Hints:
The complex is a heterodimer.
Chain A (H helix, E strand, L loop, with lengths): L3 E14 L2 E14 L3 E5 L6 H8 L7 E6 L2 E2 L5 H10 E4 L13 H12 L4 H14 L16 H13 L5 E5 L7 H18 L2 E5 L3 H7 L2 E6 L2 E7 H6 L4 H8 L49 E4 L2 E3 L4 H4 L1
Parallel strand pairs in A: 3-8, 3-9, 6-7, 7-8
Antiparallel strand pairs in A: 1-2, 1-4, 4-5, 9-10, 10-12, 11-12
Chain B lengths: L8 H10 L2 H18 L1 H4 L31 H37 L1 H16 L2 H12 L3 H28 L2 H8 L4 H13 L1 H23 L11 H8 L8 H28 L6
Helix pairs in contact in B: 1-12, 2-4, 2-12, 4-5, 4-7, 4-10, 4-12, 5-7, 6-7, 7-9, 7-10, 8-9, 10-11, 10-12, 11-12
Amino acid sequence: MSxxxxxxxxxxxxxxxxxxxxxxxxxxxxDIEKGHTVGIVGESGCGKSTLGRTIIHLLDKTDGKIFLEGxxxxxxxxxxxxxxxxxxxxxxxxxxxxxDPKKSIxxxxxxxxxxxxxxxxxxxxxxxxxxxxxxxxxxxxxYAYPHELDGGRRQRVGIxxxxxxxxxxxxxxxxxxxxxxxxxxxxxxLLKKLQMDRDLTYMFVTHDMSVVKHISDEICVMxxxxxxxxxxxxxxxxxxxxxxxxxxxxxxxxxxxxxPNKREILRGELTSPINPKPGCRxxxxxxxxxxxxxEPQEQQEVSPGHFxxxxxxxxxx
Amino acid sequence: MKKHxxxxxxSRFVYQLSKNKMAMIGLVILLIEVLIAIFxxxxxxxxxxxxxxxxxxxxxxxxHWFGTDEIGRDIFSRVVVGTRYSLSMGIIATAISSxxxxxxxxxAGFAGGWTDNIIMRALDVIQSLPGxxxxxxxxxxxxxxxxNTILALSVGxxxxxxxxxxxxxxxxxxxxxxxxxxxxNCSPARIIFTxxxxxxxxxxxxxxxxxxxxxxxxxxxxSFIGLGVQPPTPDWGxxxxxxxxxIRKSPHMVIFPGLAIAVTVLAVNMLGDGIRDALDPxxxx
Lengths: 317, 285
């Protein structure tokens, strides 16, 4: 087994709301290997973006530990926090709101270099040119403003900004869901190419199963703040174990008219993430739910590298 | 599209502004007024206090270009010398209130929570007094005179500027580009002044241009009730209110100081609009 890039243990992120504590990320433990891409999937509001933002220290965690290349970076402050943030970057979902509309795109790409204080003026210019070239922004658009660009080009600007400080770990927070399908492929391929060239580790947050299949080595399925299943991506599509994963996969439209997917429709409402009960979060909508499911669930390794959080996984097979 | 190759934001701004004809006209008018203010005593054909008892309320003529007022003073000379007071009071008071208001608004809008709450309630207290009353109280406390009047005039305009910036900043604060700025280690000061303020300030700039006009009129009201700059200082607003009684018989006494105010306000507005547009890359030509 290769080295771990990022490891989180029992990571929790709660938000206090008027109605109680919202468990956005609840007791997540996972390992992300160097050079791998881990896809995080789940429906809206299941805490996938919050998980990514908490790991890279954009949000303060409530509890748990975060390790970066074996170093405990859970409670870094000041200078160390800056150093850690430089190594863990993020690419945002919406390329329209993630770039300052009043700055030229060149200034946006340049900013992390300026702020880091590591480079001289001429080095900054040189590196900026290099970065814009790297993500494929035309020379003629060097001094353009965000509103003059389409979504795909803006997303490239966001990628250049994230890569400016040579991070090791990048959280891609639904980086293509706001783009046209034709542009999606371009951006995904760019991300893949950059990963190979620069030895990056990605955490790829998305709700698009076909995107995640294309790009991930491993997939994490989240449901209401918890990881319900984690395994290598091929295995997940072949042999999903958790009832929620099965339902999720059955929702992917099939292009084969002779063998259409039998879609499993989930009954019941999404349980509220505010002050949840201790048992399985999915129990209320799960057709296999029994008494046992109302007790806290442990994450178990059913086969090497395949983790499931369901007490009935053995019986259901 | 022609690209401006200037490296800095500022040179791009100057370039954009210089291409805006209206803004340039406004700027030229203001510069001329500033020159008039500086060389007022050289330009004015008569002393602004000089009384000619033989020429009361005369209509404009070759001798008195703008006519004379009710005690025989040359209105042209008074308008010229008045540029010094009215223009500088309007601009300086607005500048003071805008800078203070913007800083307060930026702090409140960025910090949020308790800091925001305390600042906003303090501004509520100021705003709960009618603006004019506040200015009157301030100038009564500070005493009359040029600088005290400027201070009194600026206090009342602070809450408006602060609120405007805060409201726009609250909208911007949650945007993803601000989150991105955090992720690349921008300091709070950098986030406020290079990201949040530039994206929130356009309403304030329009507010400032209107503020100049408002302040000139308010200064006049102060003079009218005996506070603010004292007669015989030829403040435009004071001349206007002094001439009120003669508006039917000798309209020229009102027209010329009024025209001076109108031209100044127009010029400030044109320049202000130009500045706002030049700061917005979406509106560039």
